[in-house]
Amino acid sequence: PAKLFINLETNSPEKQQIEIYTLSSQLVLSSSFNQQSKIDISALPSGTYTYKVKGIPSNKITATNKFNVIR
User: If both were cysteines, with which of 19, 49, 67, 70 could 1 make a disulfide (CB 3.0 to 4.6 Å apart)?
Assistant: First the structure.
């Protein structure tokens, strides 16, 4: 479970973008990062979220998963 941040790391030299969605597919956060990043999720209410990470500009999805936010 996550509370304030999620940590991301990629081996890709390409800039990446993370998109975080509610389980009803509503986009709630989008942020770009390079190989490592700490994404602030403190504004998200408790619940389960999915995310996808994709390359910029290739738009190729490099990761998908879900996580829980606990307040």
Answer: 70
Query: How many Å apart are CA 60 and CA 5, to the nearest integer?
Result: 24
The pTM of this model reads: 0.90
- Note the pLDDT tens digit of each residue in 15-61: 999 999 999 999 999 999 998 899 999 999 999 999 999 999 899 99
Q: How far apart are CA 66 and CA 41, in angstroms?
A: 13
| Residue in 46, 51, 47 with CA at minimum distance from that of residue 6 | 51
Show Cβ contacts of residue 2 under 8 Å, excluding neighbours closer than 6 positions. 41, 67, 68, 69, 70
Phi, psi of 32 (to 5 degrees): -105, 155
